[in-house]
Specification:
The structure is a single chain. With 114 residues, the protein is of the alpha+beta class. The protein has one domain: Collagenase (Catalytic Domain) (3-Layer(aba) Sandwich). It contains 4 helices and 3 strands; from the N terminus they run αβββααα. Strands 1-3-2 form a 3-stranded mixed sheet. A hairpin with a 5-residue loop joins strand 2 and strand 3. The radius of gyration is 14 Å and the shape is globular. 20% of the residues are buried.
Length: 114
């Protein structure tokens, strides 16, 4: 998650801060293990803090860059971005080795948050 946070934070308009005694938790991260689903990770909007869950059964089989892309992707959902079919976008579904935002991701971020 640290890589995903730094990638989105680098865009400069939203500060994704770590929780501290004087902040409100808006997003939580958790792990689970379930081999009976093909879901590798998911974001869930909830009352209070949203949740990003990583399925260790699949997540641990992915390469480091695939895990980074998945974390960036799920954090993108927490920033309220949907899926796209545009190549080189972290919001494109699939197991893809990508560690940075694509031009479409940056454009969407700027339109939504800046």
């Amino acid at each position: 998650m640290n890589h995903a946070i730094s990638v989105w934070d680098a865009q400069g308009c939203v500060n994704i801060a770590h929780d501290a005694w004087n902040t409100v938790t808006d997003l939580e991260f958790d792990d689970y293990t379930n081999s009976s689903t093909s879901t590798h990770a998911y974001w869930s909007a909830r009352t209070g803090a949203d949740l990003i869950n990583f399925n260790n059964h699949w997540f641990n089989q992915m390469s480091a860059d695939e895990r980074k892309k998945t974390a960036i992707h799920e954090l993108g959902h927490a920033l309220r971005f949907g899926h796209t079919t545009i190549a080189n976008s972290v919001m494109r579904q699939g197991i893809i080795a990508q560690t940075s935002l694509g031009a479409h991701d940056i454009s969407d971020y700027d339109s939504q948050w800046c």
